[in-house]
Design a protein that fits this description.
heterodimer; A: about 120 residues; alpha+beta; 4-stranded antiparallel sheet; two-stranded antiparallel sheet; 4 helices; B: about 425 residues; mainly alpha; about 65% helix; elongated
């Protein structure tokens, strides 16, 4: 899974042209991954101000509305890819335009299969 | 005819029909698509009208018609009438070799699907579609990816084969031997994919172990004298015999020595043992036969303490000579520990810490932890189990390793919620 981080400060500092270019780069990458059969799923996420935090304490649900305290970086979207190696996943992550201005984290997804011990 | 029986018949016919169509038209990509469409048509029509007298001929005719329809519409678009004129007319009955239902091209098809131009996962996907006759949706379900993703992969795989200039037909000499190795490895991987999947998701899985066993049986029928084909089939049957015992109802893993052996399938054990007993003395020895032999030794012990560990140690020694790998060393160490004690096992895996192939592989700390536990070094064992639990990317393995670590907790305090998740899967 490729977790795409964004920071409002750096994103807002970009020109409209730069933001458009990033969108184009992302959709080019997306098309390539669909074509290669590596893309499994993914979504961009709405602004963190629309998020609700949910905690259950002593059986009671406590929901906390945003906006949260100023955070430098937030999770802005994710892609799930199924590729031949971890190195390939890192290579794809590096092509996500946000990697150049904020960061992308590559995390293996836990498999539901298990070897006999 | 019942639905499953009809499905079985169709999938049994699939490779022969594809072989017949390919022999006439040569184009793998479109021939394979046409055969899938013919099978879909048969699935609905035969259920309604019954099985035709010559099901093989029916499928070849329908697939051929689809192909020529497709060519016609393409040529109308591209105005390439001349190339269509060179093709056979659609309704002409297939020639004698086209409808020969006894001719079996399964082996040649397996060779084609396991072409070296493809990655392992593509070889598996294509084999399941073109030879096992599974639909793209079933294959996608088995590999837990969306159907659209699997469609792309299969299309790309077929194009890659064509781009590599591969021809459909028999292989010879060294080429054939190497390709047969790849075919057996692919069947082995398909089996493992099905066998290691946890109980909870099997509803959505095509029965991959069943498909792998069926395809390996076909390969054995065509190559009855090959020891490794027999060995692979025996290995699959003996492994499959333990399926019901290898997980709890909640999907937690149960190690071999703790399995309820009454759940092992005696018929599969008998067939697998007979196969390997017959193959070993007559054939060139190889890794599948040796692994099957090890599985057979485990299977003959009705209680874990009756296991003939010296025999298993000897077989691992042979396997290490024929197919050396750090994974074999790890299994060998577990067996050695049962004969010469856990310290001897630990000494055997000591050098693996420097092996870059295992640098962050959870299997090394998992085996180390097991051996340290046997040696009575609970603290070191617990630490190694936790390292292994962090390194695995398998959820059931993570649960298992954490539960082993929990058992070695000094004097188990009340578990807090976050750490206690694995407690409910502990076996008494």
């Amino acid at each position: 899974m490729l977790l795409i981080y964004s920071s409002p400060a750096t994103w807002e500092a970009l020109s409209q042209q730069q933001r458009d270019d990033m969108m184009t780069e992302h959709s080019t990458l997306y098309r390539e991954l669909v074509e290669s059969g590596e893309w499994v799923g993914g979504n961009p996420l709405a602004d963190p101000s629309l998020a609700v935090g949910v905690r259950v304490r002593n059986g009671a649900t406590v929901a906390t509305d945003g906006p949260y305290a100023e955070v430098k970086e937030h999770l802005a979207g994710y892609d799930v890819v199924d590729c031949d190696s971890f190195e390939r996943a890192v290579q794809i992550a590096a092509r996500i335009p946000d990697a150049a201005i904020c960061g992308v984290e590559v995390r293996p997804i836990l498999d539901l299969s298990g070897m006999e011990m | 005819m019942s639905l499953p029986a009809l499905g079985d018949l169709l999938r049994e016919l699939a490779p022969r029909v594809l072989g017949a169509v390919l022999r006439r038209y040569g184009d793998f990509d479109s021939s394979e698509d046409a055969v899938q469409e013919a099978m879909l048509a048969a699935a609905t029509q035969w259920r309604r009208d019954g099985i035709p007298d010559n099901p093989h001929g029916w499928l070849v005719t329908v697939a051929t018609r689809r192909l020529t329809d497709q060519w016609r519409s393409e040529s109308a678009r591209h105005r390439r009438e001349s190339s269509v004129a060179a093709m056979q007319p659609p309704d002409q009955p297939a020639g004698p070799d086209g409808t020969d239902p006894d001719r079996d091209d399964t082996l040649e098809l397996l060779f084609l699907c396991c072409h070296p131009a493809l990655s392992g996962p593509s070889q598996m996907a294509l084999t399941l579609r073109a030879v096992a006759g599974l639909s793209t949706a079933q294959i996608a379900g088995a590999f837990l990816v969306p159907e659209a993703t699997m469609t792309r992969r299969i299309t790309r795989a077929k194009r890659a084969i064509e781009a590599a200039g591969a021809q459909f037909g028999p292989l010879t000499g060294q080429n054939r031997a190497e390709r047969l190795d790849t075919v057996l490895h692919t069947l082995y991987l398909i089996f493992n994919e099905g066998y290691t999947s946890s109980g909870g998701t099997t509803l959505y899985h095509a029965d991959l172990t069943g498909e792998a066993i069926r395809l390996t049986r076909q390969a054995r029928r065509l190559l009855p004298g090959d020891g490794e084909v027999a060995g692979l089939l025996a290995l699959m049957l003996l492994t499959e015999s333990r399926r019901a015992a290898r997980t709890t109802e909640s999907g937690a893993l149960v190690p071999l020595v703790e399995q309820d052996r009454r759940l092992w399938e005696p018929d599969l054990i008998a067939e697998g043992t007979e196969l390997i007993t017959e193959a070993l003395p007559r054939s060139l020895i190889g890794p599948y036969q040796l692994q099957a032999a090890i599985a057979a030794v485990h299977a003959e012990a009705t209680r874990p303490e009756e296991t003939d560990w010296p025999q298993i140690v000897a077989l691992y020694g042979l396997l290490q000579r024929h197919a050396p790998s750090p994974m074999v060393t790890l299994s060998q160490a577990v067996a050695v520990a049962m004969v010469d004690g856990p310290r001897a096992g630990l000494a055997l895996i000591e050098p693996l810490a420097q092996d870059s192939r295992l640098a962050t592989h959870h299997r090394l700390p998992a085996v180390r932890a097991h051996l340290l536990e046997l040696a009575g070094d609970s603290d070191a064992a617990r630490a190694a189990y936790l390292v292994a639990a962090r390194q695995t990317v398998s959820q059931p393995e993570q649960h298992y390793l954490r539960s082993r670590a929990d058992r070695l907790r000094p004097n188990t305090p009340a578990l807090d919620r976050r750490e206690g998740g694995s407690r409910d899967i502990q076996r008494p």
